[in-house]
Automatic annotation (TrEMBL):
The keyword Transmembrane applies. This is Vomeronasal type-1 receptor. PROSITE patterns: G_PROTEIN_RECEP_F1_2. Its main location: membrane. PANTHER family: C-X-C CHEMOKINE RECEPTOR TYPE 3 ISOFORM X1-RELATED, TASTE RECEPTOR TYPE 2. It comes from Geotrypetes seraphini. Residues 23-293 form the G-protein coupled receptors family 1 profile domain. One of its GO terms (cellular component) is plasma membrane. GO terms for molecular function: pheromone receptor activity.
Length: 319
C-alpha cells in the first residue's frame, strides 16, 4: 500500500457518497422502524425502501473505491473489474426503474384512473409493487450478464484506482456484446427518463390545478396551499436532478465505450464528470426525499418518541 494524494474529483465523489450513505440510512431507518411498529409496509413505502437500499449500496460502492484510491490498493484485477462493472450497472438500472415506479404510483394515487387496467393497479397496489420490483431486479440481473462474460475489458489506461472510482472499469471495447449492452442500456435509460418526465409533468399539473382551486377559498386552507406549493418544488427539484445526472452520465458512458475518447488526457475530465454526477444523484436525492416527504419526519419523530417512552418506563420500573 502506497499513500497517494487523490485529486479534487475523487474527494468530491467520496464525500458526496458518504453524505448520501447517511441520508439513505435515515430513510431506511424511518420506514423500517415504522413497518416493524405497525407490522405493515405500504406499497409506496416499499418502493422508497427499495430505492434507498439500492442507492445506499451504490454510495458504499463509491466509498470503498475512494478508500482504495488513497492507498492505491490493487485488489480488482480483470475478474474483479468485471464484477464491479456488472454490480454497479445492475444496481443503477434498479434505481432508475424505482424512480419511474414511484412516479407512476404517485400519479394514480393523486388522480383516480378511468382506464380499467389502471383501476386494477390502483386497487391492487401491493401486488403491483411486489411484482414490478421483483421483475426489475430479475431483468437487470440478466440484462447485464455480458459484462461478466467479457475477458478483454481492461487496457493499460485503466489500471489505476482513479479509473475504477470514476468509470467503474468501463473502457473502450470492440466486443459486440459489450457494445450492444451499453447502447441498449443507455437507450433504456433515455426511455425511462422520458417516462419519468411525463409522469411528473402530469403530477405537477394536477398539483397546480388543485392549488388554483383552493386559492380563492378561506384563509384556513393557507397551510394546505403551502403544502401543495412545497410538493411542487420537491417534484421539480427531483425531476431536474434526475434529468441532469442521468443524461450526463449516459453521454459520458457512451463516449468511453464507443471509443470517442482516444487518450487518457481527454478521458480524465469525462471520467470525473461521470463519477461526480452519479455520486451527486445517489446522495442529494435521499435528502430531497427526507425533507420533502412529511411521512419520513413523522416516522422519525414517532421512533424517537417511542425510544424515549421506553427509557422512561424502564427507569420507573427500576425505581
Amino acid at each position: 500500500m502506497i499513500f497517494n494524494s487523490p485529486d479534487v474529483a475523487s474527494i468530491i465523489i467520496y464525500f458526496s457518497a458518504l453524505f448520501g450513505t447517511i441520508g439513505n440510512l435515515i430513510i431506511l431507518f424511518a420506514f423500517i422502524s415504522n413497518a416493524i411498529r405497525y407490522k405493515i409496509l405500504q406499497p409506496l413505502d416499499r418502493i422508497i425502501v427499495n430505492m434507498a437500499l439500492v442507492n445506499l449500496l451504490l454510495c458504499c460502492f463509491k466509498e470503498i473505491s475512494g478508500l482504495l484510491l488513497v492507498f492505491q490498493t490493487r485488489v480488482y484485477g480483470t475478474a474483479g473489474c468485471r464484477i464491479l462493472l456488472y454490480t454497479y450497472h445492475t444496481l443503477r438500472l434498479v434505481s432508475i426503474c424505482s424512480v419511474e415506479n414511484l412516479s407512476f404510483i404517485h400519479l394514480i394515487k393523486i388522480r383516480r384512473p378511468s382506464c380499467q387496467w389502471l383501476q386494477y393497479i390502483h386497487s391492487h397496489q401491493g401486488q403491483y409493487t411486489n411484482w414490478t420490483t421483483a421483475g426489475c431486479w430479475i431483468f437487470s440481473i440478466i440484462f447485464h450478464i455480458p459484462y461478466l462474460l467479457c475477458d478483454s475489458m481492461l487496457n493499460d489506461h485503466n489500471k489505476t484506482i482513479t479509473y475504477f472510482i470514476s468509470t467503474n472499469c468501463l473502457t473502450t471495447s470492440k466486443n459486440f456484446y459489450i457494445m450492444f449492452t451499453t447502447y441498449a442500456s443507455v437507450s433504456l435509460d433515455l426511455i425511462v427518463i422520458i417516462i419519468v418526465i411525463i409522469l411528473n409533468v402530469f403530477i405537477i399539473d394536477l398539483i397546480c390545478k388543485h392549488r388554483r382551486q383552493i386559492r380563492g377559498m378561506l384563509t384556513t386552507l393557507n397551510g394546505h396551499n403551502k403544502h401543495t406549493l412545497q410538493a411542487t418544488k420537491i417534484l421539480l427539484s427531483l425531476l431536474s436532478l434526475y434529468v441532469v445526472c442521468w443524461i450526463s452520465s449516459d453521454v459520458v458512458w457512451v463516449a468511453i465505450v464507443g471509443g470517442f475518447i482516444h487518450n487518457e488526457r481527454e478521458s480524465k475530465p469525462f471520467n470525473d464528470i461521470y463519477g461526480i454526477f452519479s455520486s451527486i444523484y445517489y446522495s442529494v436525492s435521499s435528502y430531497i426525499i427526507i425533507f420533502g416527504y412529511r411521512n419520513i419526519r413523522d416516522h422519525l419523530s414517532e421512533s424517537c418518541w417511542c425510544s424515549k417512552s421506553k427509557k422512561t418506563t424502564v427507569v420507573q420500573i427500576m425505581k
